[in-house]
Amino acid sequence: MPDDLYRLVYYSRNTITGDATALAAAITSILAKSQVNNQRVGVTGALMFNSGCFAQVLEGSRSAVEDVFERIQQDDRHGDVSLLAFDPAPARAFENWSMGFVGASIDDAARYGALVQDSGFDPARMTGESLFETLRKLAIEEEYAAA
């Protein structure tokens, strides 16, 4: 296992208000800033926004991941931030993504909306491992669809 590689999994409730355009702009802003900041400190991961929740995996050195998570907890766009897992990781699962976003298109939003309805997806009822595996699977699908 690489020295000091950790994986953090959390979810939070969306507190962004406004219409669909304002929500899309806020999520785009979160993603753009995360990509720049995470690349600078060596953090990788994936973010999903769905049904009023953010679900995210962060990977990197313990201190870098802790710093990123601290900023998230202080961000007023996230409410009820809940840590599901923070453990040493054997390898990066999102090594090519400074912050990948699953669900970026209207088609994806419809697909993930169906996931919520069909599976009862609720990050509050998931373990860190099951949420990590869900995001990893969706990220692989995103990469395959983009190829």
From TrEMBL:
InterPro entries: Acylphosphatase-like_dom_sf (IPR036046), BLUF_domain (IPR007024)
Sample GO molecular function, one term: blue light photoreceptor activity
Domain BLUF stretches: 5-100
One Pfam family this sequence matches: BLUF
Stored PROSITE patterns: BLUF (PS50925)
SMART domains reported in the protein's UniProt record: BLUF
Protein name: BLUF domain-containing protein
Native organism: Lichenifustis flavocetrariae
